[in-house]
Amino acid sequence: MTASSYNAEDPVDLHGPAPARSAAAAQPTAVPADRPGPEQLAVVQPPVTADPALWGWRARLRKATGGLIKPGPGKEEARHRQAEVAVRQYLGGGRLVMVANPKGGSQVSTTTLMLAHTFAALRGGPVVAWDNNEARGTLAQRAEVATPDTHVWHLLGAAEHLLAVGTAGDLTHYLRSQPSRAEVLASDTDPARAQQIGPGECGQIWLLLSRYFGLTVMDTGNNVRTGNWQWAAAIADQLVVPITLEPDHAQSAAWMLDHLDTRRPDLVSGAVTVVGPATASASPALRRQMLAYFAARTAQVVQVPFDPQLAGGRPIVRARISDASRRAWVGAAAAVADRLAARSAPRPDQLAPRTATSSPPAQQNPALEQPGHAQVSVTELPLRKAT
């Protein structure tokens, strides 16, 4: 019996030329316009506000009825859920948040840590809190985990190796990992060191951090004229201004905004003001005056309540922070995230390719091309410390 009796094809010469294809076979088949696409199989998630309430009397009612009655969240709980979604939104890579107020005791370190904790806990990292003080700062003292005892100068000593062959694991030798999954980079702790951190050192540190961390929250020092402070103001994507409702703290922050308005008006107009509790309560009229001032100068004002865990300069144990305080800081982080998301950052693949002979593009501040926004001068804010 021959192969042809089974209707087999003739043998193919594997070493010969490929058989010619017909013109009809070479043309791709057109996809019908009415054919459903794979996007129709995507599962549409209900909004976070559709889930049953977890707070207050609504949650107690659901529990008491065994789930037969499941009321939705109240206004405050719904707002909190939406804030958590905002914190998790896409922000782009290598973003730098500058937390600044030249007045000591204005809760700059507290704000830096709480924002880093909130972002890291809700986004799952990677977030680093950087104490960018020209000498010795206090951010690492407020951190819950105080080891290892390395700081910025140790990191700078390893910068050449880390930039050449270092890994993310190597970088952790110089950071203090917190339970929230945030990392802390401490400032100099050597009392014998005379050298200060300057813009050159800041650039090296930022080059390392931005390789491995999508978000850096920076605690700045109190001197706005130092090189490291000016470097931060030039590079930052977002400004956060912590104040308490005390006249000297408000005056210091207002002066800083005037200073920044001559260099980065975009930072000022897009800033988020975080109002913390004051040691002595201001009069209702003075309180309204200060809140109105910063509402007019910055993009958003967020208030956070008093929490004994955040007061007194002790290390902050995040697990002991009250629910009310934790929720307020989620709102503050959401405000920062919204501002970062509104400020687009191009991906590396979206940048124009550079040739070997082309020079780096000049650094341009888009804010300098914008007309200055209307403002009230600090000299028109007649605040005085009560005696």
Tell me the major beta sheet: 8 strands, mixed
Which structural class do you get from the secondary structure elements?
A: alpha/beta
The H-and-E topology, N to C, reads as HHHEHEHHHHEEHEHEHHEHEH
Shape: globular
Any idea what the radius of gyration is?
28 Å
Helix content, binned percent: 25-40%
Low-confidence stretches: 358-387
Query: Strands of the largest sheet, in order across it?
Result: 3-4-2-5-1-6-7-8
* Portion in beta strands: 5-15%
Kindly report the average pLDDT value. 85
Span between termini: 116 Å
Structure write-up:
This protein is an alpha/beta fold and 387 residues long. Helix content is 36%, strand content 10%. The chain has 14 helices and 8 strands. The protein has helices spanning 23-26, 56-64, 75-87, 108-123, 139-142, 152-157, 159-165, 168-171, 199-212, 227-235, 247-261, 265-269, 284-297, 323-342; strands at residues 95-99, 127-132, 176-177, 182-185, 215-220, 238-244, 272-276, 300-303. Strands 3-4-2-5-1-6-7-8 form an 8-stranded mixed beta sheet, sandwiched between helices. A hairpin with a 4-residue loop joins strand 3 and strand 4. Helix 3 packs across helix 14 (323-342) and helix 9 packs across helix 10 (227-235). The longest helix is centred in the C-terminal third of the chain and has 20 residues, at 323-342. The chain is globular, with a radius of gyration of 28 Å. 34% of the residues are buried.
